[in-house]
Amino acid sequence: MTTKISNLSRMALLLSALFLIVSLFVPIWQIDLDAPQYPEGLGLKIWANKIAGDVDIINGLNHYIGMKELHTDDFMEFTVLPYIIGAFVLFFLLSALMGKRKWLHTSLIAFVIFGIVAMVDFWKWEYDYGHNLSPNAAIIVPGMAYQPPLIGFKQLLNFGAYSVPDIGGWLFVAAGLLLVFATAKENGWLKKLSRKKTNASLVGISFLAVVLSSCGTETVQPIKLNTDNCDFCRMTISDGKFAAEVITQKGRAYKFDDLSCMLGYVAEQAKGSIKSYYINDYLKDNELIDATSAWYVYDEEFRSPMGGNTAAFSSQETARAYAEKLGVQETGWNEVSEQQPEHEHHEEH
């Protein structure tokens, strides 16, 4: 059995090296923070050699809850990481030049170990950052920790923290996948899969279906009546017929006690920051439905918590029946969402 690798696998090694070179000049990771008082959000950009983004603002906010300030010079990783990436670049290039299978295997194993160690180190940094708080902080919440998520979304008081790879991180992932592809090719795993083409296709289709269904699932959060507060007027949400909710593009849920509060909040946000809208079905107690497909009836008789006085229904027929009884006209989401929110309710409360 030959120990030489194919030109295609050499190309995979060269591309992996190129991706790592580019990762030195773009952010590797990002942590975004959003809250009602920061509608455009705050962000940290983690590069191979520095922390950038809204560092000063975040340090100022974190000072009040006793968290350490973030400074590039305090992290040894930013000194050694560019050299480690450079070493992998040289090793990948040398592996492509030597063209031997053991060099390819060594490249993959070393890169996987590096990835695991890097993520563990990142988690330990986040843990220390979120747990080791100053006892002299201005704001102390007993039992509360502020560790950001390693990846994904996490609620930290009134801030939503969203942690995902940035361009450089996805380049790392792509480099790793290329190494896996080359290793699979040189060890004949791809040929074995091709012999089971039908089964592999079925597995692939099933996997794709699961991924797509997962991507399409909204992270709607049930509204806890008499517990959750409206993210616009700050009043406690107590009526299960009029409450509403939006999901931002970053996956953060904001809850409201009235349609007018939701529209007021949306009016203050950057265009395109809202992904999905939900409203409680008037005929059911505290059951959210898609606000964009619901039908609405406005009448003072409804007496909603913040004076929006608009009831939502899941079907136009039901909304029309209520509207006819009240002598008014049912409307759709397009008309309702274009209404000017009544900001005076927000100011009064």
Please describe the biggest sheet, giving its number of strands, its sense, and whether it closes into a barrel: 5 strands, antiparallel
* Total domain units: 2
Strand runs, count: 11
The gross shape turns out to be elongated
Strand content: 15-25%
Radius of gyration: 26 Å
Number of helices: 11
* Average pLDDT reading: 87
> Which class do the helix and strand fractions yield?
alpha+beta
Order of helices and strands: HEEEHHHEEHHHEEHEEEEHHH
Q: Main sheet: which strands, in order across?
A: 3-2-1-5-4
What percent of residues adopt helix (DSSP H or I)? 40-55%
Distance between the termini: 78 Å
Low-pLDDT runs: 210-217, 343-349
What does this protein structure show overall?
The chain is of the alpha+beta class. It folds into two domains: 180 residues; 105 residues, no CATH class. The chain has eleven helices and eleven strands. The strands form three sheets. The protein has a five-stranded antiparallel sheet with strand order 3-2-1-5-4. The longest helix is centred in the N-terminal third of the chain and has 31 residues.
